[in-house]
Amino acid sequence: MTVTYIGVRHHSPACSRLVAATIEAIRPAHVLIEGPADLNHRLDELLLGHRLPIAVYTYYRDDERVHGSWTPFCDYSPEWVALTVGRSVGAEVRFIDLPAWHPAFADRRNRYADADHRYRAVTERLCREFAVDNVDTLWDHLVEAVPDDELAERLTTYFDLVRGETVAGEDDRAREEYMASWVRAAGGPVVVVTGGFHTPAIRALAVGKGPWPEVPQPPADAVGGSYLVPYSHKRLDAFTGYQSGMPSPEYYQRLWEDGVGGAADAMVEEVVVRLRKRRQLVSTADLIAARTLTSGLARLRGHEFPSRTDVLDGLVSALVHDDLPQPPPWSTRGTLAPGTHPAIVEMVAAFSGERLGRLHAATPLPPLVADVTAELERLGLDGEGPVTLDLTAELARSRTLHRLRVLGVPGFERRSGPSSGADPVLDEQWQLTPDDGRLPALIEAAGHGATLASCAASMLRSQIPQAGIADLATLLFDGALCGIDMEVTAALADGIATAGELDALGHVLATVLGLWRHDRIFGTAGSPAFEPLIAAAVDRSLWIMEGVRGGPAPAEPARLRAVVATRDALRHAGSVLDISRSTALDVVARIAANADAPPDLRGAACGFGWSLDAEVDAVGALAGVSGPRIVGDWLAGLFAVARDRVLSDDRVIAVLDDVVSGMSEEDFLIALPALRQGFSFFPPAERETVARMVVDLGGGSARSLLRAEVDPLVVARGMALEATVDRVLAEQGLL
Amino acid sequence: MSKDLQRPPAELRYADELAALRAEDTDPRPPGWALSLAAARRFIVGDDRGVSRKFVGDPSLVDRALVTLATSRGLMLVGEPGTAKSLLSELIAAAVSGESTLTIQGGAATTEDQIKYSWNYALLVAEGPTPRSLVPAPMLRGMAEGKLVRFEEITRCPLEVQDCMLSLLSERVLAIPELTGPDGMVFAQAGFNVIATANTRDRGVNEMSAALKRRFNFETVFPIGSYDTELGLVEREAARLLEQSGVAVAPRRDVLEVLVTAFRDLRDQPERLSTVMSTAEAVSVAHAVGLRGWYLRGEAGTAADIVECLAGTAAKDNADDLARLRRYLEQQAPRRHGEQWQALHAARHLLPG
User: Fold this and answer.
1) DSSP-based helix, strand, coil % in chain A, nearest 5
2) How many structural domains are present in chain A?
């Protein structure tokens, strides 16, 4: 028995060429490929004639865990090439890895994600040695950008070195044992195509002869399955997501089709076309410079044709005539950071490409389609026309419709319903319209999950990293409407921790706090998932609040709402916060005392402390801000946050009465608009209480104070006119 | 003689390494270069065989910079202050030309004289304009000798002074109208090019013209991405400076950790300080902390010293920065764990004002 091992990097064109050449030369009896063994009887389905990239989506649910993962294939995947070339030379082709539902894959969303982060110590040393930025560049330098001579030996040396003496984790060991058992069973010439990190271990384990192994069966009580879905280059791109494949799939597609030199030329052209379409100036001189730099870099780095990063480096040096706000993603090996230079965004997009996969018409429909059809029928939502739902009784129907809405399936439109967690609306209006676009939308969406619930969940979660702070509240509320636990990802907390706008932050905090405190209909009350968000938002709000500066300016209601939300969080969710009550009270005390802070914020900060029973001398503070240009705005802040305190302590109104009585006619007119805005924070009944307090001070009837027969604006205008007349008379010496 | 210099230029500091690299350099060299591109890169990013690592940024940045200098465009290094732009330009000049002292320091007072040439007026009066009475400035020397010229802080120069670079860079010839005959035209020799540095914080002071921008390739130098690398660098540099200043104890690791973390936090915040929290600034704070500790109390320096030094170095005289710093100490420091963080929080009252 002769076994030829080819250790590959997933999504590597050079490895694919080696695989094709080896299989054609050996014409083996068996081709064994790292891939889900439970799919072996369905290989024909894969080979129907799809347009790649496609992926096998596997879902799994039991009592303990829910898991969904992809096994993506593109034209230049070594696994795909092994499958197709193996078939064409008449070999028996088999997938030999554990099924995707197996616990060994519990932490993985993509079977062919790179494993190199587990071998960082070695790869970092190699990068230093070859003076390259990261392991992607290293790979291009060692494999993709150089001729294929002795590629097999080079790959073996590389992976042996990288794997070295490292002991594999338990998950990897289970997989390697299993793959080795297939190799032991195969007779005749065999070609084994597996990830290069596994190859050294499999070679060591596959000694002797054995029977064909069993394909593990999922536990009887588990639900799961695998089906084909269309995939896209965008999802394959490591610059756009976690656990993708190699970066820049379009580049490697071109490399696979036209070779290294052809790929470089094609990508330069693509980038220039994109930039010019965006009306960016790309002159011929710039192109010459880019060309010179690219070939210079290739020569310095010892490449016959420019490699991927030679092209990118040359383009960025020659075409960008500014400083970059963020390092280019190909040097840091991360996803695109917010604020990346627009030219770099275009370059990365060009290298990623827009290619979309399409399934052959004969491919079995994904289970999502059946799931949705059955669910709509069961809930009586398969008709058309308006539907009214009572949320207390028909939550399941509402959730189904919301899930379809967030998936972008056409024909489900929400006309009305609650707009936040604290909104006391209890019914919803929907309009259903049949639409031919539903089936394609569902097939497209099936790549996110097998059931409507899991699909909507993964769709919503995938939006979190790109969401701006203003969209977060919407996303979280959508999650509640769909009945989905929005796990708090690091991206979400990061978004909050770097938010710059107090207004938007206050909106998010109020939404989250509303869902966390009140929402019994949607079942989100007290959900621990929201707690880190509340904590992060309170931290950030206090941080921004203390930095706001500004002189007299009209009170900003959005800003005051943020202060209220922060106060509410401290009052009702104190136990989940990172920041201690005393630290928070210190912060607001400093704001209240800071003469550079805008008056509405100072008033709100004063009310913040007062409403939390801190020792605050609101009366004294009011006396300190009695100038006509600030007193109204200061009061607006105070009333927005602590109007109950004002009502229960008549001294504030008493001092205010003194302040207003002491104002000259002109000062009063200046202060009036802000005072009116301030008092608008009191609902009518409370306004009457305030009026009664004023009456107790001076006499008269509270009701008559509130029910003026003339519009107060007319009165104010009349007063202004009288003042003008008085002034003119005085000037002319007639008074 | 170099022993008593406060800071010898790179070609003296690393003379041994340069000599060794030159001796074993067999790769083709661009015309006029003292080293091949590959050897120059090794000089800057280091290798494991006796060449030290002098610049900790991305190797690809160094590649791009070197290749740019071998073309007909100049190299413009941009970035926040304190990101080692000047160090990089010095190292490149030392590697490529063997000399890093052809330097023009840009500023509001920079004139064309300091860039091109001026005259020895005594000789000028005695002999008239002759090559003998000409006093060459860095650009003239760089062009005549085929060497790299460093132009530091180019955006601090008035626009008309920046513009005098235009024809030099595109025509590669410097005319001296006062001289006649062949002396009147100095053609650039192979090996001549310009490395300019500009600071993103000075943007808008003297915005470069599009014509000048076009003659440069821009390379942005970023702050150090990895915490460990930055901590290592601060520790190494601070220890070296302290030793020079006669301090007998090395800085405490846990104090440096607090310092570097605080700098990174303040640097990454969306609302930035107007002072740049660069690695260079962190090194100087670490140096000051060590000095205070040793000369005031005979120990290595504490978190409280950090607060005292931050007020002077980081906040300078900017009231807003001081307020941000105070906010950081009040709100963020208490949430970190560790003895030194508590000490930092407790020392917040040491900030002035």
Assistant:
1) 55, 10, 35
2) 4
**CA atoms within a 13 Å half-sphere pointing along the CA-CB vector of A557:** 6
Going by pLDDT thresholds of 50, 70 and 90, the confidence category of residue A253 is: very high
- Complex ipTM tops 0.90: no
Q: How far is A133 from chain B (nearest CA, A)?
A: 6
Report the amino acid identity of residue A681: F
Closest CA to B54 of B82, B18, B24, B91: B91
> B324–A583: do the CB atoms touch at under 8 Å?
no
Residue-number span of the structural domain to which A666 is assigned: 484-684
Distance, in Å, from the CA atom of A246 to the CA atom of A543, rounded to the nearest integer, reads: 39
Please tell me whether residues A262 and A211 are part of one structural domain: no
Q: What's the full length of chain A, in residues? A: 735
State whether residue A579 sits within 8 Å of chain B by CB. yes
The secondary element (H helix, E strand) that includes residue B173 is strand B173-175
Tell me the chain B residues in contact with residue A322 when contact means C-beta distances shorter than 8 Å. 78, 218
Structure pTM? 0.78
A703 belongs to a structural domain: no
Pairing of strands A54-61, A66-73: antiparallel
DSSP assigned state of B251: P
Shared domain check, A514 and A390: no
Cβ contact B251:B238 at 8 Å: yes
The answer to whether residue A467 is domain-embedded is no
pLDDT, tens digit (0-9, with 9 covering 90-100), for A115-159: 666 677 788 888 888 888 888 888 889 888 888 888 889 988 888
B96 pLDDT tier (thresholds 50, 70, 90): very high
Q: Which fold has domain B2-220?
A: Rossmann fold (3.40.50)
* DSSP single-letter state for residue A283: -
- Quick one: closest CA in B to A549, which residue? B320
Q: In this structure, are A181 and A255 located in the same domain?
A: no
The verdict on A435 and A580 lying in the same domain is no
Tokens of A53: 């990239």
Q: Which residues of B touch A498 (CB under 8 A)?
A: 270
Closest-CA distance, B56 to chain A, in angstroms, reads 11
B284 closest CA partner among B306, B252, B255: B306
Q: Residue A569 in 3-state DSSP?
A: helix
Helical ranges in B46-191 per DSSP H = 59-70, 85-97, 112-115, 121-127, 138-145, 159-171
Contact yes or no for A98/A175 (Cβ under 8 A): yes
DSSP codes, A63-75: SS-EEEEEEEE-T
**Contacts of A250 by beta carbon, 8 Å cutoff, 6+ apart:** A233, A267, A270, A350, A351, A352, A353, A354, A355
Please indicate, yes or no, whether residues A574 and A670 belong to a single structural domain of this protein. Answer: yes
Helix B227-244 / helix B253-268 crossing angle, nearest 10 deg: 120
For residue B61, which residues of chain A lie inside 8 Å, CB to CB? 331
Structure tokens, B76: 């413009």
Residue A644 pLDDT greater than 90, yes or no: no
Q: Which of B64, B73, B66, B171 lies closest to A285 in space, CA to CA?
A: B73
- Spatial CA neighbour of A565 closest among A492, A609, A511: A511
Q: Is residue A732 part of a domain?
A: no
pLDDT, position A432: 86
Q: Do B60 and A331 touch (CB under 8 A)?
A: yes
Is A518's pLDDT higher than 90? no
Q: Is B162 exposed, middle or buried (CB count within 10 Å of its CB: 0-12, 13-18, 19+)?
A: buried
**Residue A189 and residue A79 share a domain:** yes
Residues A504 and A432 in one domain: no
Residue B1 pLDDT grade (very low, low, confident, very high; cuts 50, 70, 90): very low
In a domain, A236, yes or no: no
On whether the CB atoms of residues A37 and A97 are closer than 8 A, the answer is yes
Task: Tell me if residue A413 falls in helix, strand or coil.
Answer: strand
Within this chain, do residues A13 and A162 fall inside the same structural domain, yes or no? Answer: yes
